[in-house]
Amino acid sequence: MVTPYTLDYHTALNEAQYRVVTQGDGHVLVLAGPGSGKTRTLIYRVAYLLEHGVPPNAILLVTFTVKAAREMLERVEGLLQQPPDGLWGGTFHHIGNLLLRQHADRLGFTPQFTILDEEDAGDLLAACCADLKLPTTERRLPQANVMGAILSLAVNTQRPLAQVVATHYPYFADAVPVLERVAARYTARKRQANAFDYDDLLRGWLQLLEQHADLRGRYAERFRYVLVDEYQDTNRLQFSLIRQIGRGHGNVLVVGDDAQAIYAFRGADVTNILEFPQHFPDTTVFKLEMNYRSTPEILAVANHSIQHNTRQFPKALTTMRPAGTPPAVVPLMDQRQQAAFVAQRLLELRDEGTPLEQMAVLVRARYQASELELELTRRNIPYVIRGGVRFFEQTHIKDVLAYLKLLVNPSDELAWGRTLRLHDGIGAVYARRIWQRLQAAGHPLEAALRDAGGASVDVPLRAKAGWQRFHKTLGALEIPEAAQHPGQVIAEIVSRSYRAHVETHFQDARDRLEDLAQLTAFANTYQSTETLLADLSLREGFKGETITAWSPPDEHVVLSTIHQAKGLEWKVVFLLGMSDGQFPHPKAVEESDALEEERRLFYVAVTRAKDELYLTYPMTRYSSQTGEVLLRPSRFLQELPDTIVDQWSVQVADPAFDD
DNA sequence: AGAGTGGGCCTTTTT
DNA sequence: GGCCCACTCT
Fold it and tell me: Is the whole-model pTM more than 0.70?
């Protein structure tokens, strides 16, 4: 039991935050501007509920990323001096996974189901196309990974495939009947493999609630308080989920900022937040408009810009921070000069006492940072790029995990195929043939363990030798205990067979083996292979980051896309590429919804800055077609009154070509 | 005809 | 940095 009333909510919160925390019963929409203490408000709300006798397991906290959930739960624990055991907190996918592990049988799956990541889904779709003997060279058909994206968008927006194709992929209109066939096949093969893709975790969850009254009742009773973060970025499917679990108790509290909705391209629908009061009866709306982050000058730019949007809740951020310096608009000759300016200014600011740690460079699109990367390298300025290849999506990690997957879920054809193909002489064709034999035997894993010589496997000699090595590895994995000791199993796989594969197939073998050692250590903290696999599938974490505890190496400046900077803040922010044709993205200009989303993206970028903001753009761009092209400043700059920004005119020494 | 290489062109991304 | 396309060499 939580000791009641130890927290001083009045001191910790401002008036608006306090009202949300203490009067947050019923359906509540909290419109929280950037830097307005949104997370703080949420965790205090959770703490308040716990202090007032709500049991932890009656609370469901849904967040946008795994990291956000973890941080919030840690902070709640910090406040209350005890972990909120039993509280379900995580992403939609995470919650869906938990529910489906308990009730998979209702949907015709077993609780050991595998989770397919995007690459796996693409592979399986490709296999489905092969099943259907679709011409692989046909240009009018999307490739498997594009198919995956199309199907996924349809699921997440809960729209018919034909409609999604018509609006987003009109050039594939003719392919709709084929896509429908592939989709049906894909569904069948996922069932066969006892596998869920990411979308199925949401779809399956919704299905459990919609089609099983007992479960609907049980969870409606259990989750009396539902809190959702980043509500502006939810999609239609997620809306349906929230509406389902919000039935009955009537305590759905969502927090978000329609001005920061930037994920429409992947199916998020800002309508969810705009129309929340219409969808959830008797909604109370709270606004958090006091900004604790930025100077008034920076907020003025944000406020002026966002006013040009029409589809939004009216809002105006205010701050109590004293006046600072107006944001600088900095035209440069070209990309190279832009990079040189940023690098030079970073160094100046560091000399004046701002650590690199407190500075970030933001871009609209990833590739826009490449010129700057060269310049930073040249000048020895340490930087990290946020994003990139995810740790758990690297080939060597996925190869090893595939062994664990087939041990846990022997129906997982993808996992069998992947591990079989690691062996010389076995390619796609023989892997499939071997799998078919194993499957025909009833229990594939037992069949595989039994058949040492490959007597039942009808493949050429070379492939048979590969099979025998595979069989030996499999036998060494001590199947009965595998489920409880994932770390040992991984170590076994690596030492018995995969180490050799890494050494012969990858030039950076040492790094990869190091990754695998790290993976082993991480897996050792788990007592269940099943849980390990699920956690890994639902977890972010990038290449180069340590999986256990992330500690940045040295002082460094951050390079990031605007999207990936959401929720973060720095003292000094540079926003690159503020020219017409780069930002807003040209494709977004014709359509007002898309243009408004670009403007929200600009709003997000601007509000990352605490003290100083530099809006830079190249005045020319070189194109091999047309030669030198003059660039005008972005319309987002032109929309701003001259009085609220400083126009800079800088000459940057041309960087030497010393490389 | 098929494979390999170089150059140009890029939205944005979590699970 | 990655992917696709075109061009070239075998």
Answer: yes
